[in-house]
Amino acid sequence: MFGRGSGKRTPRIMPQKGKKARILVVDDELAICQLLCERLTLEGYECATSAHTEAARLRLAEEQFDLIISDLRMPGISGLDLLKEVRTKYPHLAFVMCTGEDDVRVGIESMKQGASDYLVKPLQLDGVVASVERALEKQRLQIELQRHRDRLEEMVEQRTRQLQVAIRRIEQTYDETLAALGAALELRDIETQGHSRRVTHYCLEIARGLHCPVEELRVIARGSFLHDIGKIGIPDAILLKPDRLSEEETFLMQTHARIGYELVCRIAFLTPAAQIILTHQERYDGTGYPQGLRGEEIPLGSRIFAVADTLDAMTSDRPYRTSLPFSAASEEIVGQAGRQFDPDVVRVFQSIPEEVWRKIRREATERPQSGIAALAGIISGLEAPGGLSLAATSAFRQN
Ligand SMILES: [Fe+2]
After folding, report:
1. Please, what is the average pLDDT of the chain?
2. 242-293 pLDDT, tens per residue?
3. For residue 393, how far is its CA from the centre of ligand 1 (angstroms)?
4. Does the pLDDT of residue 192 top 70, yes or no?
């Protein structure tokens, strides 16, 4: 049956077990109304009458019915107009149209408009009862079908939500795993502690300025965070050597890009990020290593990384010098546009206020042990509405 009003909801299957349906008879001939009501009541239905369509509309708004038997020709609003209104407002309400003998075509038209059946006057009461039963059975099946569809949709939505949660958990596990790898490298290479995290944030800030899509930001975050993971394969004597490296040692040190690539390229979720690891030491003018790529042969993530890496290296203390101011780093980066760096990336870098870089660095320093979850925090920040906020610093706050 239907509740009051016309809200879109699936009605209960009508009528309830053991209870006959409620029927509204609409006819301007009082005798027909009485005749139909008497017979339908005898059949166990609950019956009400309206002498014209306007009265029927009011009753429908106030009461619950399962079926309408309406005359086609009535003063004022016709039975066909009432049918159209019922189909819109009460789509699951069964409707049987009664027509005069001359109106058979209109009766067929009524069925096209959604009537369950039509009856031709003079009415045969047995025929009316049979028609009512058929119409109610048809409506019952339609409602059951709709409920079945609703249940299926609900199940699909529920499964989709569960799948999304599972995917998020897997993604988080991925990021925590690679954050642990990055942390392992930092334990060996004390000099660059915090470097990977800072560079990752710097990269994301520039990448957002270049309007990179979220999926690319994710790749850039992973690639820049693990850029030096290959240093795990470099002997301590070289990695931690305080003096200048010999030519042979430099060559060995440079293998870290390929070692890192080989280490992660076979891990499916890191394959795109592996390209950044392999090419993070390339230079825009082709004088970098290991492949000597130039210009746009170098993945965008690596061209962004080159700027971020220099920014962090110059503004960090080294055994042989103290940190330089951001202005000096900025000057160096701008001076190297078109040589070491992609000029487009440099332009975006220049458009970002110095305070942003200071803020990223400050927050990273205040929480040096932001730990393994740092990268997971960065990645989850990518999904926030509007992408990463200023300096992507929310990731540090989360840890
Ligand atoms: Fe490197």
Report:
1. 84
2. 888 999 999 999 999 999 999 889 888 889 999 999 999 999 999 999 999 9
3. 24
4. no
* Mean pLDDT of the 60-81 span: 91
CB 315 within 8 A of CB 195: no
Residues, Cβ < 5 Å to ion ligand 1 = 228
Q: For residue 253, which amino acid is it?
A: M
**C-alpha to C-alpha distances, 253 to 195, 241, 364, 393, nearest whole angstrom:** 18, 11, 27, 32
pLDDT of res. 276: 97
Model confidence at 170, in pLDDT bands (50, 70, 90)?
confident
Rounded to the nearest angstrom, the distance between the alpha carbon of 228 and the centre of ligand 1 is 5
pTM for this structure?
0.60
User: pLDDT digit string (tens) for 286-341?
Assistant: 999 999 999 999 999 999 999 999 999 999 887 677 889 999 999 999 999 999 99
State the average pLDDT over residues 86-110.
Answer: 85
Distance in Å, CA 381 to ligand 1 centroid: 25
- Answer whether residue 370 shows pLDDT above 70: no
224 CA to middle of ligand 1, Å? 10
Is the Cβ–Cβ distance between 46 and 59 less than 8 Å?
A: no
